[in-house]
Amino acid sequence: MELSQLNFSEQEEAEIVRKQFEEAWFLYQRKAIPTEPVMCQLHEVFETFDSVHHNCLGCNFAESTWLINNFLQTYKSQYSIQYAYSTFIILAYLLVERIDTLFDIIELDKDFRRENFKVLLDLRRWANFLKHPKAFLLTHHPTFSFSDSPKNKELIAKANVIVDRAFLDKYYAEKDEKKDQTLYKAIENKDNILVIFPNVISVTENLCQAMKDCVSIIRDNAVYRWILEHKHKTTFRDYWIDNASA
Fold first, then answer.
1. Which helix (H) or strand (E) holds 53?
2. pTM surpassing 0.90?
């Protein structure tokens, strides 16, 4: 029996995806954009809020924050697990890249990041899988699910290959020719492939917390603020005066 026959019907899938992404959107509104994007607080950190100066970090992070929001609010039009989750992960990954770039600039300890910002690595793994499918391209009509789905027990029991976070850690963490060859042998020309995305609600919750924690790290560390203020000059002095007179 094909996995698709064990999964949700098209109507059931549409209903559950809409319900999930509606909940994720309401959660995101409360925690990521309570009045304005939480990462806009970086303007206050660098004392550029309501001033003639402009700090680029707050606005650049806000742009990524709004991209995620703009997709989540389309929950009423969602009907596909594959489409909704893939789009959400890629948009969230754009924010992940910006946060990781900031952490690279201030040289935040990588072990600290892995321990305290686990959602960033989780999204990076999934985005890497979506961007660089490798042997997954050679599979036949994979089935898509999400963690905590009521269908997973039955799907997992019948699946030939399960693509989950452990699978991604093994084959999609880095470029490795030997592992790539092993992946081809394990997955190419196979059917009953099951992809289990991380639940969008828990990912949204963790991503919102990561945004808040990112702001706190910069706000609470004078060395990091100095690096961003003086070494890399993230603040444009008299920005609004110069632009008003242009």
1. none
2. yes
